[in-house]
Amino acid sequence: KIIILDFGSQYTQLIARRVRELNVYCEIHPFNHLPEFTGDVKGIILSGSPYSVRQADAPQLDLTLFHEKYPVLGVCYGAQYLAQQAGGEVQPSTIREYGRANLGFIQHEDKLFKDIPAHSQVWMSHGDTIVTTPANFEITASTDTVRVAAYRVTGTDTYGIQFHPEVTHSTDGKQLLKNFLVDICGCSQEWTPDSFIEETVSELQQQLGNDKVVLGLSGGVDSSVAAMLLHRAIGKNLHCIFVDNGLLRKDEYASVLEQYKHLGLNIRGIDAKDRFLSQLAGIKDPELKRKAIGRVFIEVFDDAAHEVQDVVWLGQGTIYPDVIESVSVKGPSATIKSHHNVGGLPDFMKLKIVEPLKTLFKDEVRRVGRSLGLEDFILGRHPFPGPGLAIRILGEVTAEKVAILQEADSIYINNLKEAGLYDQVWQAGAIFLPVQSVGVMGDERTYENVICLRAVESLDGMTADWCHLPYQVLAKISNEIINKVKGINRVVYDISSKPPATIEWE
Ligand code: XMP
């Protein structure tokens, strides 16, 4: 494997994804919390950083731990750090070095630049530049303005590059990373969804033996893929629980349950609609709604889990971005919403945790799911929040409002699918607004509620842009909702991006 040491760059996860796209397994570790460098480590990548090496509090690292023992590739800050530690000089750049540039000089004999064409375009993003290099450093590429765009420490497998190969604007970045991984580190590109499945299934069999595992399925991608992996490893010893909280999309509970049964999962569906709704009665505050739903879910799940005799493990669909230890640059960020229940094992459920997806990124989870035979019906779904429609009904949740929202949402989503837009949108949903407005239907004056449509493009939900859905599609959806859904006489479209808005309204 490859170890990526993170100095806090926004691009670190992208480096990891590129390495994995080349079918090489890698892990991200913070610079100040180093892993053990054991036999299966083949090379090290040092990331960029929001810091400058000239700052007094810049991240520091004991290079002797791996330097000249493993091949090293320093990227941006990583490259500057290596140069500075070896006696080179790093200074603020005199001109802005941000954006596209071309490598006017490339030393093609250098292993790192094998098969990289002359004038290759690279992406620069730095405020410092290496002005002098130590005597044993050889400059292997330059741009018009950056003399030390890449270097090699002569006679070693230590390399530095000032540009970002992980960003797609670096046109040959993938080739460069491949050169490092394959030719320099000697990695074999064998880490594929199938090899992951094979390895994970056999590890799970070892770890779990004849033990029983319970797992809560949500209909989402992560829990579904986690269930399929565990199912392949231990079959009927995996007991899945799928709770109907009454806050799912229209017909979702029945169709998803059917799909899971069809996949051969040992699954129990629990209708707890009334229990959730009664606990939500009278609650208007979004955070209190989330808490009530979380609490009832744990109660319902715990009851069901107790019915499985001698269960030892709790399976969870945790994925890599949830567990990567982040380098804290600006201190812990404020809680905006009390999101995802990471590590949410209640004290009274004294089960051991098994998380078969905790080394995978989201796109890898999908690929593994596909290899396991899951269909787009599950893999292609938009993300859907755990508290479901409860946080898309502003204010108090009632059965009547849920029913109205389910109808409107279903018209919306079906139209997106019919128009071929569903897969282009990252997340879409309808929101029930607690305001009434005046309308006219026939000769009648109406005074009814408003439905808001939301559709966003995003990579990970951290930032999002509203989608420019075609007017004809919006017009059709609006017509259909107003004509068919009793209680709604107005439809609006949310044109706010995140930040400053959030994706959900609550
Ligand atoms: P926001 O509204 O914070 O949403 O922009 C970002 C992503 O998180 C989802 N979300 C939640 N997911 N429990 C969840 O499991 C929650 O309480 C919750 N709140 C928001 C939201 O759907 C979007 O994908």
Automatic annotation (TrEMBL):
Annotated residues for binding of ATP: 218-224
UniProt KW keywords: ATP-binding, Glutamine amidotransferase, GMP biosynthesis, Ligase, Nucleotide-binding, Purine biosynthesis
Residues forming the catalytic site: 76 (nucleophile), 164, 166
Catalytic activity: XMP + L-glutamine + ATP + H2O = GMP + L-glutamate + AMP + diphosphate + 2 H(+)
Domain (GMPS ATP-PPase) ranges: 191-381
The keyword Nucleotide-binding appears for this protein: yes
Record-linked PROSITE patterns: GATASE_TYPE_1, GMPS_ATP_PPASE
Pathway noted in the entry: Purine metabolism; GMP biosynthesis; GMP from XMP (L-Gln route): step 1/1
Enzyme Commission number: 6.3.5.2
GO MF annotation list: ATP binding; GMP synthase activity
Domain of life: Bacteria
Gene Ontology CC terms: cytosol
Chain's role: Catalyzes the synthesis of GMP from XMP.
Quaternary structure and partners: Homodimer.
Protein name in UniProt: GMP synthase [glutamine-hydrolyzing]
Organism: Pedobacter yulinensis
